[in-house]
Amino acid sequence: MMLTRATGVSAVLAVVMAGVLTTVAVARSDSERGSSAVAGPKAGQAGDAKGPGAQGETGAQKPGTPTGRGTKPRDTVPALKVAQVKYDHQTWGDPKTEVGIVIWAPKGWKKVKLSTLEVKLTSPNGRWNLRVDGTGKDQPIKTASDDKYALTSSSTEDFKLVSRETGTTRATNQVFAGMVFRHRTLTYTYTDPVRGRRLVVDRFVSLDDATHTLFEVTAGGRPQDAAALAAITAKATEDFIRLP
Length: 244
Description:
single chain, alpha+beta, three-stranded antiparallel beta sheet, 17% helix, globular
């Protein structure tokens, strides 16, 4: 869905006046660029965001040190709880065209801009991450999800499918008021040689559109963090804004 520049800017101003956003300063996000360490289990993969263009976690700490060959790393940090995660708005985009993205994201997570409409946010301890790509795809959400499954399942160490689900979420922001997001969510686990077992929630979302994927949101962590990762994905979905 494309909005006119005037409509998009007016919508953002309305949000600012309401006190929800302080400043939609997407131009500043360019200064947050940083190099991403490839932490995926095989070449061509990075972190918990699998597939073409995916980026790995930056600054991830080793959850445990193997004591011998074949010893799996241990992570004694408690599972991330749903109530533990606080949110604030994150913005990024292209200041030249006024195209921008706004979402609810975990508060205090470090943001790195991967491309004009894509960012990765990583928790301070490096164990949890959120990637949001607002670039969009000219294909249905089921096709996008199935393509990702085919690629990831064939190239990821110890890949195990947890679920593939289709659902809907009503938009809560003013720009898409009254509209419904339709999504296809792929949840799976894999083994990272350093961090151990990882869990990924990868969601493709459309806006009342059966032929176009509007954005992709991917949350990564450990299997014990599953409930919190699902909640983070849901929060980012419901308040997604793309302007114009």
